[in-house]
Amino acid sequence: MSFLNINQVKKRSVLLVAIVCGLFFGGEQAIAQATKLSEALRAVTAVGENGIGNEAAAKAMQVINAAPSSELPTILAAMENSNRISANWIRSGVNSIVARDPNIPRAKIESYFKEQSNNAMGRLLAFELLTDGNEELANRMIPKLLDDPSMPLRQKAIAALITDAENFAQTDQVKAMGSLGVAFNKARDVKQLESIAQKLSDLGVEVNLQRQLGFLNQWQVVGSFDNKDMRGFDVAYGPEEAIGMIDTAATYQDLEGKEAEWGMVTTAHKTGVVDLNDRIGKVKGATVYALGSFFADDEVEAEIRIGTPNATKIWVNGEMVMSNEIYHNSNAIDKFIGKVKLKKGDNQILVKVCQNEQQESWAQDWQFQLRICDSSGKAIASAKPRSQQ
Q1: Whole-angstrom distance, CA of residue 196 vs CA of residue 180
Q2: Which CATH number fits domain 214-388: 2.60.120.380, 2.60.120.10, 3.90.1150.180, 1.10.260.40?
Q3: What are the strands, taking DSSP E only, across the chain?
């Protein structure tokens, strides 16, 4: 048996104390750093429109930018609580970290990417981290994203099919049409679908973009009612008073005291635009109602998406699902989205569309386009063609 002398005992004691202190104070420091990062991420995700939270976020970014690459999974997870603006702040922080410390924790980031319930923009950022500088890996991953619930990732897969079609176009039009056909069925982004439809048309193949996107193309329209000084938005005119029991044989008094009756409008526009100037005339300071119907094969959760430059309210089966008193800020498709539970069978949709009195040329549009789809933008199936609804 060997024994330690007193000097060896002292040396080992000092070493043990050093290890314990290192673990204690190092752990304490790690906890403090994690807390700082957590607080910084909360500050950044609190950023809003019109500069709300920018000052606090700018300070917080100093902490995020200084974080090691090992914290990237934590930062990606914060995307779950982000909005369009704060997501850009987080992306900036991730880019700064990787530029300084490129040794990313690939396994954890890949795990985050594979979980499809994670934030769509976060998963796109994870994809970019995993494939940065590795075109071969990107090319292997992209074709598997055709059915991905993340729209930015799905768009990458659709874009690849469009590129394939363009490469085939001069040598093998059958293959080009095949790639575009798959892309048309899988795409959910409106701009991509419009591009694909045009490319198919160039190859002699006509597709129904209106049906693919789920736009309603038949409406009963009545008006116009008063909206002078924009007072009509919250006034319940005849059709609104009769919600749930609307009779399209009924007539009402319009803003000029004349009789207004319901009239059928069918739109052939590729994205379902209903031009009220064509139906009612270029009337300013006015309100109309449009009544539509959608037949659902089964009870289903859906989205009502409307594009319009005018103020609107929407009711489905007598229940209000959307109210947007905004005039002339854009004509974008899917400008407003409301969630709704459709019943099996016919569902009645009433849209109130208000035009104000602005005289500028860009304020003359009086129109809407409404579609019914799932959360990905895919049209809800219906046993009845939309032309018969």
Answers
A1: 6
A2: 2.60.120.380
A3: 218-226, 251-253, 259-261, 263-266, 274-275, 286-296, 300-307, 311-316, 319-324, 336-342, 345-355, 367-373
**Long-range Cβ contact pairs of 162-166 (< 8 A, separation 24 or more):** 162/192, 162/195, 162/196, 162/199, 165/199, 166/199
71 DSSP 8-state letter: G
Q: Cα separation of 234 and 313, whole Å?
A: 9
| 250 Cβ contact list (under 8 Å, min separation 6) | 238, 242, 261, 262
At 290, is the secondary structure helix, strand, or coil? strand
Mean pLDDT by groups of 10 residues along the chain of 389 residues: 45 41 44 72 88 89 93 94 90 95 95 95 96 94 95 96 92 94 96 96 94 96 94 94 90 92 95 94 94 94 96 96 94 94 95 94 93 94 67
For β-strands 367-373 and 274-275, DSSP reports them as antiparallel
Distance between CA atoms of residues 157 and 121, nearest Å: 15
Q: From CA 312, how far away is CA 336, in angstroms rounded?
A: 10
Question: Which residue ranges make up each domain of the chain?
Answer: 6-104, 151-207, 214-388
Does this model's pTM top 0.85? My answer is no
